[in-house]
From TrEMBL:
The chain crosses the membrane at residues 15-37, 254-272, 284-305, 334-354, 374-398, 418-443, 464-487, 524-545. InterPro entries: Frizzled_dom, Frizzled_dom_sf. Keywords: Disulfide bond, Membrane, Transmembrane, Transmembrane helix. It comes from the Eukaryota. Residues 74-223 form the FZ domain. This is FZ domain-containing protein.
């Protein structure tokens, strides 16, 4: 009977172990799954065929102006039937003038897939310009953009007609200068005039008669600034959350960072005093984690001290996003590097602990043969080099460079896709593998303790397990929080762009809503994440402190003080 109970108990334990390992794999697969299905959270692109009558946008054209406002190219060009609606009336009229229509179709040199992308862009641009109620700008800009995005193509002769540099310069620098500048800043794919061909003859006077600037009397919000005649968000004032939530978030981050920094400094001081133990393998890996925490906490505190000066290269937030400051780029790179390093040191320490528990004879043999110093050197080199490629890419490639990702800024990060592959994914893999090994190691310890009737763990090992646990909790929480934020980045960016466009032409509380992007970051979740860094620092400090010595020293101090007080009491009574 007793034997069957033991067999049943052993079977249950194995099932629990398998369940824990399976749960770990599932848990650390979630961030990856969430990222790859995040496309469903992106707002659907606007269908250009929405019933809007775009014919009214385009004025009647004189066929004699074709060779003036278009550049004729006698070169072989692919022909695709135009399948859109925005430029249909305009392209139809021009193709008839050029006698290029085949049947009832208009052909352009752009694939159908690309046509749909251009249709969505033109729809947004049309709405964008329409907010100005500036007819002269719309009448020249939209035909030009149709020319640029859908160059007419004669399938039989290989002749195509494309937009010209002259028109581009006239529109971008004169007629629609303010709108063009804002469009570039909010990310619209507008042409580079220098790359376009010159007109076949001198530019007609059609455009030169229209040089109307945007002179509407507009009023900007308090956190926007008027540049020329357009409202742009202020780098030093714009807050994506309510002011109260922003202050809670900043205050909690600074408080948590200060606590973590203070505990880490005390840890370094005590480690120097006990350098014989702390500066040897594998304890030194814990000190490397402390250094990373000091770097992370210092960046947060320095940011709070001079946020506007350090992160704003211009009064305009849009200009700042185009030209991030040196502190933004290099501070973000250091923050990025330290985050990955922190997890790497933890993973290596867990792997060493795992090896020691599951392969004790081999671990002792390595120590006797002096191989630990080679293992330490390898761990240091690998851990220092692994984060470098992603950091270098973030510093050198403009498309994914370190830039502001929160307003007000706290630290700069790479683009959301780059951040996933260079931070979230490696952190997820290292953390998942580490916890997997930790579960197996602790399970092995439990099995051995049953056999030998002993815990098999020293006080130092118990403290190390506490460090492992605190880093795991911090990393798990941060990983889940940041993963959820990354999944919403496309929707956030689209909503923020739409809001900036709305506010650009003056504040209208009924039209311009902040509700679509305010809840991107939770101040309370952010506060918890940073206070967990302090918990990691506290567990590391606990590892360094020799509590037995402190208790002995405390008793000695109490006895000495008691003796002094007793002597003084006797002297007073005498």
């Amino acid at each position: 009977m007793e034997c069957s109970k033991k067999s049943f108990s052993a079977a249950v334990e194995k099932v629990i172990l398998v369940f824990l390992l399976f749960t770990t794999v599932c848990l650390f697969s979630l961030p990856i799954i969430v990222y790859y299905i995040s496309d469903m959270f992106v707002p659907a692109t606007v269908n250009s065929n929405d019933g809007t009558n775009y014919n009214e946008t385009f004025p009647e054209r004189n066929c004699s102006t074709i060779p003036v406002q278009w550049s004729k190219v006698n070169a072989s060009l692919s022909c695709y039937e135009y399948a859109g609606s925005i430029c249909e009336a305009f392209l139809t009229q021009w193709s008839e003038c050029a006698a290029m229509r085949e049947g009832s179709s208009v052909h352009v040199g752009v694939t159908e897939e690309k046509q749909m992308e251009h249709e969505n862009t033109l729809k947004k641009l049309n709405d964008f310009i329409g907010q100005l109620n500036l007819e002269s700008c719309a009448q020249v800009a939209l035909p030009f953009l149709c020319q640029y995005m859908f160059p007419l193509s004669d399938c039989s002769t290989g002749t195509s007609y494309s937009a010209t540099r002259d028109d581009c310069i006239m529109i971008s620098e004169r007629v629609c200068a303010d709108v063009w500048d804002l469009g570039l800043r909010v990310g619209y794919d507008l042409p580079n005039c220098d790359e376009l061909p010159k007109a076949n003859v001198a530019l007609s006077t059609n455009l030169s008669t229209s040089n109307e600037s945007i002179t509407n009397n507009i009023t900007c919000r308090d956190d926007f600034v008027k540049t020329n005649v357009i409202c742009e968000p202020r780098c030093d004032r714009f807050e994506q959350s309510s002011h109260t939530e922003t202050q809670i978030m900043i205050g909690s981050e600074v408080t948590a960072a200060s606590i973590a920094l203070l505990l880490s400094i005390v840890t370094i001081i005590l480690s120097i005093k006990d350098h014989k133990m702390m500066f040897k393998y594998p304890s030194i890996l814990i000190l490397f984690q402390v250094i990373d925490i000091i770097i992370l906490a210092s960046i947060i505190i320095i940011t709070a001290a001079g946020r506007d000066y350090l992160y704003c290269s211009s009064v305009s937030l849009l200009e700042t996003l185009d030209n991030p400051t040196l502190f933004c780029k290099y501070g973000g790179a250091l923050f990025h590097y330290s985050l990955i390093n922190l997890v790497l040191w933890w993973f290596c320490n867990v792997a060493i602990f795992f090896h020691k528990i599951l392969f004790p004879f081999q671990a002792n043999r390595f120590e006797r043969l002096g191989r630990n110093k080679y293992i330490l050197a390898t761990v240091i080199v690998v851990s220092m080099l692994v984060p470098l490629p992603a950091v270098i890419v973030g510093l050198t490639v403009k498309k994914v460079q370190y830039n502001l990702n929160r307003f007000p800024p706290q630290m700069c990060a790479t683009s959301s896709e780059m951040w996933f592959y260079s931070n979230i994914l490696p952190t997820d893999l290292f953390l998942g593998a580490g916890i997997f090994m930790l579960i197996i190691a602790l399970w092995s310890i439990r099995k051995k303790s049953k056999i030998y009737k002993s815990t098999q763990l020293s006080t130092a090992e118990k403290k190390i397990i506490l460090i492992f646990t605190s880093v795991s909790v911090f990393s798990l929480f941060s990983l889940g929080y940041v993963s959820s934020v990354i999944a919403r980045v496309p929707a956030f960016e689209a909503a923020l762009t739409q809001y900036f466009e709305c506010e650009a032409f003056g504040h209208d509380p009924e039209k311009c809503s902040r509700s679509t992007f305010e809840k991107m970051y939770s101040p309370y979740m952010s506060a918890v994440a940073y206070f967990l860094i302090g918990l990691v620092s506290l567990t590391i400090l606990n590892f360094v402190i020799k509590w037995q010595k402190m208790r002995t020293g405390g008793r000695t101090i109490v006895r000495n003080v008691s003796k002094v007080l007793l002597i003084k009491t006797n002297e007073t009574s005498v």
